[in-house]
Amino acid sequence: MRILHLTPEIAPWSKAGGLGDAAAALVKNLALLGHEIRVGTPLYGGIPGRDKMEIAIPSLQVGVHGDPRAAACRVRQHELGPKAKIWFIEHEYFYGAREVYPPREDAGERAAFFARATLDACLATGWIPDVIHCHDWTVGLVPVLLKTTLKNSPLGQCPTVLTIHNLQHQGLQPQRLLSYLGLPENLWNAQALECLGAVNFLKGGILFADRIITVSPTYAQEILTPEFGFGLDDVVRLRQQDLEGILNGVDTEEWNPQTDPLIAEKFSKTKLQGKAACKSALQAKMKLDPKAKGPLVGVISRLWEQKGLDLAAQALPALLRQRKIQFVLLGSGDPILEQEFRKLAHDFPNDCAVQIGYNHELSHQIEAGADFFLMPSRFEPCGLNQLYSMAYGTVPIVRATGGLADTVSPWQKNQGTGIVFKDADVGGISWALERAVQLYQQSAEYQAVQKRGMAAQFDWVQAAQRHVVCYELVKKQRQPTSSATR
Ligand code: ADP
């Protein structure tokens, strides 16, 4: 099949969170299955070697209706394999800065431009996909464009799939985006794209895509409810028949303790000794007391409300005061929370270390060196770090929500792969951390939990195959003879 992906992030070129990893691994595995792939994504300022990349289209006129001087771009390309290419949309004004999501007044135009430019690159080269797969809000209007403005173009019959990686981020943009993209004005109503006086990009995708995927079966159920729907649960319910959850996996070329070049010593399920060396190296790097008796609990995360780390910051002092655990955190986000964690490290210098920022190398070292990994999320569409943790024999401590509930089974005598708790509150997290301490004290039981986690398979091959089934389905649905044609 010819499959076009549109994504604002693709690792290692760009990554702000799990989407970058997930898009990269999915594309790689679809290519390995023999499919022909193009990926449309912006050429951000921080992408190394950007000026040396091959030019695919020197000058592409993009079908947007703003300032005509800003309506052209260059398309560069990178070959991922014999039949797979990334098209990098180069537009200095929109994407010259390093960040994927800078706080800009024209965030809507930035998103709309690369989406429309990718479609125009297909039209210009005559590469017409069998399926178009859109990831998250920035490209949510692509299914809308195909069924309206581009209906009579060669792309008009392409079926579309939308993956919701996180329903909280919807892209509420000014009404002017409709005319910027040349979309019909009659879409400006609450049954279509309008939402709280803005154009809601993700809502457009949910209403117009032929099929909707989200990144875990539990999250697919949760987003049907007001608690997790962020105001769009009624819209998601309209599409319930076309919604499914497919779990993300682990890219074992990137996250594998047997081959990871970034960790102090390699290890495996049958040769766990190297993990102790990784813990010592992490303690030394983060200046933690190497003689501490308790387990080392790690966190790598965006510091936003979703992740529940504000609650963890309240639960941790009691355990640190009693020297029951050590704690290491890598992350950034809410400045108040960043400050709270800095203070925690200041108050407990021997047992708590905090690094604010983004650090790829340290993220691998925390996964390898920690005994437990904490994810107390209020909601979690899939979550990747609990999967990486299990692969590295680091026992996850997770709240039972979304993909965390689907991938970590609660520790009980002789079974389970992690500590699972229900309540998103300080009591819930304290309970879970105390339980982790108890487990750690029973070393045979702890090792058994570690090994069960390391044996768990969350592979991308299977996830890619499930996507192919979904692509086949939408292709069939869009065939003119099918009664399911929308
Ligand atoms: P989300 O997409 O909600 O941020 P995920 O668990 O799906 O959460 O994915 C987060 C990804 O980003 C993981 O690969 C994680 O290791 C990485 N990550 C998050 N924060 C940092 C950081 N400060 N430094 C390095 N990697 C990070």
Structural class: alpha/beta
CATH superfamily of the largest domain: Glycogen Phosphorylase B
User: Which regions are unreliable across 5 or more consecutive residues at pLDDT < 50?
Assistant: 482-486
Helix amount, in percent? Answer: 25-40%
Would you state the CATH class of the largest domain? Alpha Beta
Ligands present: adenosine-5'-diphosphate
Q: Taking all residues together, what is the mean pLDDT?
A: 96
Q: Which term fits the overall shape?
A: globular
Q: Give me the number of helical elements.
A: 18
Distance between the termini: 22 Å
- The CATH architecture assignment of the largest domain turns out to be 3-Layer(aba) Sandwich
Spatial order of the strands in the main sheet?
Answer: 3-4-5-2-1-6-7-11-12
Strand-residue proportion: 15-25%
* Domain module count: 2
- DSSP summary, beta strand count: 18
Q: Sheet with the most strands?
A: 9 strands, mixed
- Rounded to the nearest angstrom, the radius of gyration is 23 Å
